[in-house]
Write a structure and sequence with these properties.
about 35% helix; alpha/beta; 7 strands
Length: about 280
């Protein structure tokens, strides 16, 4: 097998053969082989360091442990990758050096996707204290009835652009909208919206989580009601980018609320998070 799939399967097979260093599940059907593994298990490690050692390092620095959980009685395998090159994920990259108070917001629309890097060095819940560092406007120039492969390729480029912006500007947090239900419009873009309703809630989110996880960055979803209106009033940017800046500010506010809950937060009205109750987004 060639390409990235072949590289992944060979890397997983080598690590699984090394005294069970990683957990792998597979299923063999009539016409295909399905393999399930955690891509975080295929990260680059120094010689002699196991995944468990690296998990402990990440936990000590405040990051969530990576890879599959191991039991308390688990012992590191005797095999070490000291004399050979340890297989790693082909999309692995060095950890993004995250600067405090920065977030990349993403706004999804039927024809455009806005990406905006914002910074807040003061009160993370304050919109006036949030400033724009960089922004990108991506046009979804896809034909009607576009194939799933073409859809995946377009979204992969957006995910790659998001990771590049995070790397250039030192962003360790990406905020993406949720809780707005289905996109609605009529006319010629109705069939395109039908695809977007699946893209924005599933494919793009999965791509971002996957790529950011390989760079030790994180993704948070926030309720984005009225983000377009508030963003266009506050930021002098294209509509989708202004909304993305407001979503980025909500991502910072959500992160601050999780770390330092104080008092009862004011909440946006209307919808919650897909059946999880009212949106837990503190507003300034």
């Amino acid at each position: 097998m060639r390409g990235k799939r072949g590289e992944l399967l060979r890397a997983v097979a080598a690590l699984a053969a090394a005294a069970g260093e990683i957990n792998v599940e597979f299923r063999l059907g009539h016409d295909r082989l399905s393999v399930v593994f955690d891509p975080a298990d295929l990260r680059r490690l120094p010689a002699g360091v196991t995944l468990q050692h690296d998990d402990a390092r990440l936990a000590a620095t405040g990051h969530k442990p990576r890879g599959h959980p191991r039991g308390e009685g688990w012992k590191p395998p005797p095999f070490r990758w000291a004399d050979v090159r340890r297989p790693v994920h082909p999309e692995w990259g060095p950890a993004i050096t995250a600067l405090p108070g920065r977030c990349l917001g993403i706004d999804l629309n039927p024809g455009w996707i806005g990406l905006t890097v914002v910074e807040n060095r003061g009160d993370l819940r304050s919109l006036p204290a949030t400033h724009v560092i960089d922004h990108r406007l991506v046009r979804l120039d896809l034909p009607r009835g576009a194939s799933p492969e073409l859809v995946t390729e377009a979204l992969a480029k957006v995910a790659g652009l998001a990771v590049s912006l995070c790397e250039v500007h030192g962003v360790g947090l990406v905020a993406m909208e949720e809780g707005l239900g289905k996109l609605r419009s009529g006319g010629r873009s109705r069939s395109l919206n039908h695809k977007l309703n699946s893209w924005d809630r599933n494919r793009l989110k999965a791509m971002l989580e996957h790529r950011l996880g390989l760079r030790e960055a994180s993704l948070v979803t926030v309720w984005a009601g009225y983000s377009t209106t508030i963003g266009n009033v506050t930021f002098a940017l294209p509509e989708a980018c202004a909304a993305a800046a407001e979503i980025g500010q909500r991502g910072l506010a959500e992160l601050d609320w999780r770390a330092h809950p104080r008092g009862a937060p004011e909440r946006l009205p209307a919808q919650g998070r897909g059946g999880e109750g009212p949106p837990a987004i503190p507003m300034p």
